């Protein structure tokens, strides 16, 4: 989808205005992510395994009920919680398997998260070792625990904005590793060109698309 130059200029103006209006709130939100204690990593990862193809609000509600049921510390079958109508999680059977597999290996995951590593290397490890966690979800998780320095969450809101800005020609139906890294690099260049830190710009795009500065 080609964007007319005038529309692109208008969108850039909207982006700048949105950033200046919400800059402090965005920075507060990022500082909150950086303050998340390791004791919360398990449920942050649970949340990111539930979000694909499901709403963030539903994922948050499902995580709250899993937490109340003691999923982290005792055997709980997540599936009945995930399929509840009031916060229905799509592909709940598959995601139940992913959650149980993640729970079994979480001590290894927690150890890895405690070791010095670049955000890029840490994301590679997570994608390789956690079933159900792709590049978007791994980046989302790292952002939610304050460890995503220089990485971008390429969700549909961000991809649509990148397309409207002419930074990407089109949005692929599915994004493989090569495409993800290429688009992320283009996003980094754009952020550098307009003088906004990538982590902040990521939240600018998200909040412009959703009207919220949420996790």
What does the model show?
The protein is mainly α and 215 residues long. It folds into two domains: 5-34 and 152-210, Orthogonal Bundle (Endonuclease Iii, domain 2), CATH 1.10.1670.10; 38-144, Orthogonal Bundle (Endonuclease III, domain 1). Helices cover 65% and strands 0% of the residues. It is globular.
Task: Give a brief outline of the structure.
The protein is mostly helical and 215 residues long. 65% of the residues lie in helices and 0% in strands. The longest helix is centred in the first third of the chain and has 30 residues.
Distance between the termini: 29 Å
Corresponding CATH superfamily of the largest domain: Hypothetical protein, domain 2
How many beta-strand elements? 0
Structural class: mainly alpha
Give the CATH topology of the largest domain: Endonuclease III, domain 1
Order of helices and strands: HHHHHHHHHHH
Radius of gyration over all CA atoms, rounded:
18 Å
Catalogue the unreliable spans: none
- Gross morphology: globular
CATH architecture of the largest domain: Orthogonal Bundle
Biggest sheet features: none
Strand content: under 5%
Total domains? 2
Q: Tell me roughly what share of residues is in helical segments.
A: 55-70%
Number of helices: 11
Please give the CATH class of the largest domain.
Mainly Alpha
Q: Average pLDDT, to the nearest integer?
A: 92
Topology record:
Layout: H1 5-34, H2 41-50, H3 56-68, H4 79-82, H5 92-104, H6 106-114, H7 119-129, H8 135-144, H9 156-164, H10 177-194, H11 198-210
């Amino acid at each position: 989808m080609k964007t007319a130059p005038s529309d692109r200029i208008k969108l850039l103006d909207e982006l700048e205005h949105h950033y200046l209006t919400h800059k402090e709130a965005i920075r507060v939100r990022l500082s909150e992510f950086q303050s998340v204690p390791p004791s919360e990593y398990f449920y942050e990862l649970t949340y990111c395994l539930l979000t694909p193809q499901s709403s963030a609000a539903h994922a948050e509600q499902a995580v709250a009920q899993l937490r109340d049921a003691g999923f982290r510390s005792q055997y709980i079958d997540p599936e009945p919680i995930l399929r509840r109508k009031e916060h229905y999680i799509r592909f709940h059977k598959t995601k139940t398997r992913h959650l149980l597999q993640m729970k079994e290996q979480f001590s290894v995951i927690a150890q890895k998260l405690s070791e010095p590593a670049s955000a890029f290397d840490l994301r590679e490890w997570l994608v390789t070792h956690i079933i159900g966690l792709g590049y978007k979800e791994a980046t989302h998780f790292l952002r939610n625990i304050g460890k995503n320095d220089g990485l971008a969450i390429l969700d549909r809101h961000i991809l649509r904005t990148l397309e409207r800005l002419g930074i990407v020609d089109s949005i692929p139906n599915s994004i493989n590793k090569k495409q993800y890294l290429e688009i992320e690099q283009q996003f980094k260049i754009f952020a550098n060109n307009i003088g906004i830190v990538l982590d902040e710009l990521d939240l600018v795009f998200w909040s412009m698309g959703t009207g919220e500065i949420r996790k």
